[in-house]
Fold each of these.
Amino acid sequence: NPLKRKLCLEAENSGAAAGSDSGVKVVVRMRPQNQGEQEGDLVLQKLSADSLAINGQTFTFDAVADVEATQVAIFDLVGAPLVENCIAGFNSSIFAYGQTGSGKTYTMWGPMQALLEDRFSSQQGLTPRIVELIFSRINEIYNEQITDLLDPRKRNLQIREDVKCGVYVESLTEERVCTMNDVKQLLIRGLSNRRTGTTSINAESSRSHSVFTFVIKSQSKSLATGLTSFKTSRINLVDLAGSERQKLTGAAGEQLKEAVTSTDHFTAGAFSVLSNSLCLRECRNLINILAEISKGGKQRHIPYRDSKLTFLLQESLGGNAKLAMVCAVSPAQRCRGETYSTLRFAQRAKAIRNKAVVNEV
Ligand code: ADP
């Protein structure tokens, strides 16, 4: 199909591919030390633009962003290429992974204050920047939300899958957004309603995964052939729950109970929260299995249905999507163990190969 070839070529030429061919692009971002962390208390050493050392061991990724890296720099690295992918018709996702307090929310959203400001703030994270670029790149956008924080009465919605629609959440409100401001209002409401839990590591940390999804449907007419083609693609921007072992954060018993039993799925304009942080274990397990298979390990059952998170994101994980991961790490001595395991996980995730193709409808 000439159109499909052209779109793929355009995406490749624009440097849009999130990583070479359909590999996962993995960027590690170190956050600055906070007030409680002493000067000299650094466990990570950036060696070059794409490598760092911890415990005397060197890790290499697609890029390593140190404390100097601005929000714009992270956007240029992972956000902008993903938008080009998506406009070319590929499903695209960004996952922020790392322990609580390492900078995932800062990376995906930026501080709430930055969203509330009228001017576009330099502190804004990936999501508002991505949405802004999309609005400047395409004429028409439909916003098909997965879960609804704007209507919290809708709980426990089921995820369904069929040939026509792929994976979706049943009974959701579907809203069309026309301006950046429409999306901003949704983000502010969604972020305000987002469930947070207080842990000893970070009072504002979230114990839930938040997924912001929108669908871009576009129509183009070829001047040469006069034929109209339609393509549709989806971006998932995922701020995962803290990756640390629950013991470490000293989460209260009540919270732990909630983490084990709560599987509510809230729906909002363009924004979803999955309040079961335990889904992260299934997500991690899935990434390990996919990495093994991609490295030539034997084919085996891929447990997408083990949790809501993996079911919802199955196209991003080893499916039809371009995937980028920002692994957020803390420079602090006391986080050394978690930082090391985040880097080990990031290295395994790099092995995954997705099968991204342009979606034509
Ligand atoms: P997480 O979502 O991983 O739990 P946060 O994004 O809430 O972590 O970050 C914890 C704290 O560190 C927040 O106060 C945040 O503003 C700050 N922070 C994180 N990364 C950076 C950064 N790159 N530059 C400045 N402040 C940061």
Note: Residues 31-32, 98, 100-106, 111, 202, 204-205, 242, 328 surround adenosine-5'-diphosphate (CB under 6 Å).
Amino acid sequence: MSTQEELSYKSTCSYCGVGCGLIVKKDKKGQISLKGDPDHPVNKGMLCSKGMNLNYVVADDSDRLLQPQMRWGKSHPLEKVEWDIALERASAVFKSIIAKHGPDAVAFYVSGQCLTEEYYLVNKLTKGFLKTNNIDTNSRLCMSSAVMGYIKTLGEDSVPISYEDIELADCFFVAGANPAWCHPILWRRIEQHKEENPEVKIIVADPRATQSCSIADLHLQLNPGTDEILFLAIGRCIIEQGDIDLSFIKNHTDGFDAYRDQVMTTTLKEASEICGVSIEEIKLAASYIGNAKAFLSLWTMGLNQSADGVNKNLALIDLNLITGNIGKPGAGPFSLTGQPNAMGGREVGGMATLLACHRNLNNPEHRKEVADFWGVDKISPNPGKTATQIFEGLEDGSIKAIWVICTNPLVSMPEARKVENALKKARFVVVQDISNKNETIPYADLVLPAAGWGEKEGTMTNSERRISHLSQFKSPPGEALPDAEILIQFAKKMKFSGFEFNNMAEVYAEYCQLTKNTNIDISGLDYDYLKHQGTVQWPFLNKTQGGTKRLFTDRKFYTPNNRAQILTSGLKNSYEKATPEFPLILTTGRIRDQWHTMTRTGKVNKLNSHIPSPFLEIHPDDAKARGVKEGDTVLVSGLRGEVRVHAQITDKIKKGMVFIPMHWGKILGNDFARANNLTGNSLDPVSKQPDFKYSVVQVALYKTV
Ligand code: SF4
């Protein structure tokens, strides 16, 4: 409720994919405070440390980009320019490159933090009007393997569950995820459920004993990279225990016979040796899952960020399918999205390999449907370049210009030196961001100041398909503009028709119509309803029926024959090989109180105090063998670069592997703290998601404490 003294707004946290609801208050002096929305179905008033400190980020404009800046030549400094000159230059360069080298010589690289309207516009601009599918997103780095896992097994990229299923499940299998730190409020709900129902079983599979293991009944501390073998071994035990759902398998799936043959090729003894998990632990996990009335599997980067990411997804989803744990309360395969709007981006086709509303880029009819809707002659059949391929294209010269929106690839992309090299070779780099701390700016020819969270209106979709409206409660500083506004103005400079929007409600209304008659249909939704109702889950056909909590309750899947596909991969191992020179396996990940490359969370003292500096987790035996003591500075070297960080010696990590957080980069930390100096560019062949979890390295003492 707003008064003259204080204004009140509803919004959604802009960090992780949990999507917690907020109530933001602004007093008459303009000071912002916030709290968790007690009526919000996701967080019921709770917030984690990142969410509850968002007001400090919004209040501090000291690092904000305030005006467009342009370089008149590669050796010239960035100079402030008018918006009109900046966008004129961008359109002139894009036109000239496309005329000379074709549309695939330009690319956009965007972010899972973009609002759905922004994602929709940039896809319309590139795929519809610039005639290239070279539009990819940093969501490629977190969940494209899950997208392919869902498409292959269920027919479309559709998360079948609702958060309400948490309180209805009696067994959780958390694989390759640390939700206690990375999805804290969702984890809090699991904790509460376990506190109230101690018989609920929680299994965690992770080579590290993370915070999420603290309430686990079983921690499967597997060897890095062996997840798929572990899941298949558990599947074998479930079959041998007689705990499969034969009726569901027979009536609603294909592929079980091949699956059974596959899992029987590896004995439990072999699987136990490969995975470093005892036969008893494998059997116990299988009995927990097999005896559950409602089984929920949860996963994220630990499976997705892998050269075998899709296969790992398939093997985990198989456990839900062979036990019939899908389309019923408390059950389903649940991929946790990392970013706040990774899901919204997927809906509008915000990746190089997707088309809007789960349409298929390879399908000529789907391309025609979207082209007709946008009033353009065609959409190119050429697959677009994915995240790492875009930077390779810049490096080899096939891509000349890149437009980076709301992301910091120099810190977040694998093999950072390669990204640096690619940006140096690019003919034209546009960086559109809120912060002058974005490490990509020194390579930019054009810098465009964008509005941040709370300074623009729009929508996002969280991990459970829940769409929420985010209110504007603050003016952008300086001349910063909402990303959507910048894209619309650029499109107009390019003389494209179809961008005559007066506000975000009109953009969203257009997108909603494109969803009509698809499985994510929200054609009956509008901003007024969203603002009034707060949130809805897609599909949403009309206001009478409302949204959809759970998919596949009729056991009809989105595959051509409506049957789910139980799929196996054939157990490839495409990881780097450890050598005497580089004998340790590096995995990277997040810490509790930082978000991505710290451009926002790094501004908050309270958050920095949790873990103030980058570190290397190393097992006591590996540390001792190298003469390393707690707190020493170590040199971590690999095939692609080096990192110098403090050693944190812990038996919570498996012997033979080490861990470095991914957050620190050049400016906020220093070059030598950047974990992605060490990671490689190997991709899952199907999802094109890079592997951040398996790089071979060596550790040596650099300086004692
Ligand atoms: Fe924000 Fe995620 Fe924390 Fe919720 S759990 S407050 S969405 S960071």
Note: The domain at 6-59 is CATH 3.30.200.210 (Phosphorylase Kinase; domain 1).
